[in-house]
Amino acid sequence: MIGFRKKLNIMIVLYHDFSTASAIHVHNLANALTQKGHRCGVAVPIDKSSVQKYMDGTILYQVYEFSEILNEGDSLFAGKRKIDIIHAWTPRELVRKFCLQLKTKFPVSKIVVHLEDNEEIVVETFAGIPYQELLRLSDTEISERIPDVLSYPRKYESFLEAADGVTVITEELLDFVPKNKAWHRLWPVIDLKKFSPRVNGRTVRQQLGISSDAFVLCYIGSVHAVNAPEVLSLYEAIALVNDKGVNVTLLRTGRDTVDFLGEKKVELTRNVIELGFVDMKEVPGLMAAADLLVQPGKADRFNTYRLPSKIPEFLASGKPVAVPAANIGLILENGSQAIILEKGDSKEIADLIYNISTNDRLQKKLAKGGRKFAQNNFSRKGIVGKLISFYKSLPVAH
């Protein structure tokens, strides 16, 4: 085991600036580690000022750009040049290269790699060819086809192999972790005061002009090539329920990188309020304005391995929640902590909305059960203590 002192110097290396969904998890974790007395920094490739724009609330940790640390390491952690833990936030190529540079500059550091997605399906979708075909390409050909903000075939596997430990957001991601590698399941830290049943959503509804008799859903998140079909199913469900005569409105935030609605756009957005990209500080109020929070989708090569960052926030908000029968949906109790979607298609979601909109008793049961689950599993105290214990248990580097 490592001869760590009581308080650690921890550097989390993020693959993007703070506008990405992953940054929410990193921000909350870095704050929580700092509150426990550890020195924590977050390194981003560029634009460290984005932390002020996108992260709501107090920022307790130090923020760096990659170039700052490599060029001016003497100022690291207010002159404390040692790094105990380099926590690579996913094995994306630009993170991998930077972490190896850090390891050269701070050789006593331990490298921990965090997995939050099936990196192979993400790369495959971007490249438009099966992952096994990508493996047949040379490193040069791969770098020409895939940006370094994604993981590179072969190189990400070797990065995991060389790491001192791995954290995973779902245990299913262990399918990609080398056997006998030290690992730890790391769930998100949620601000249980910010996302709470006490947040008043009535004002938001009034500001948006939503009628008092409307049944409201809220979906937080961008649409990209991988999740486009499942978000489309949510839009289709909203239209189906309205066609049955139920007044249902969908609040939607996020950016669209693909045209997932196509020719149906006018038809499918009649009962949707598109808010675009919103500041983090607005998200709790939007969730509080909802009567039901749905994460569409089904168990597939993408959803099986991930835990969408919005689901813990959904549960903490004290609203009824529906999730796919994948990842955390296999842990939540169906009918008491959440509704578990078996198919996740538009018909199943529409039937759920139609049935739950008139069932006050079920709404209250789900709201209470989901909130309790969040309190038991996403609190700062429980998550940070276990992570620090994992850091300190890492074997001596080979």
List keywords for this structure.
three-stranded parallel beta sheet, 2 domains, Rossmann fold, alpha/beta, 37% helix
Characterise the protein shown here.
The protein is 37% helix and 15% strand. It has 16 helices and 13 strands. The strands form 3 sheets. A 7-stranded parallel beta sheet has the order 3-2-1-4-5-6-7, sandwiched between helices. Strands 8-9-10 form a 3-stranded parallel beta sheet. A 3-stranded parallel beta sheet has the order 11-12-13. Helix 13 (310-316) links the parallel strand 11 (293-294) and strand 12. Helix 10 (228-243) crosses helix 14. The longest helix has 18 residues, at 360-377. It is globular. The chain starts with 8 loop residues before the first strand and ends in a 5-residue tail after the last helix. The model has no long low-confidence stretch (mean pLDDT 93).
Task: Give a short overview.
This protein is an alpha/beta fold. It folds into two domains: 196 residues, Rossmann fold, CATH 3.40.50; 176 residues, Glycogen Phosphorylase B (Rossmann fold). The protein starts with 8 loop residues before the first strand and ends in a 5-residue tail after the last helix.
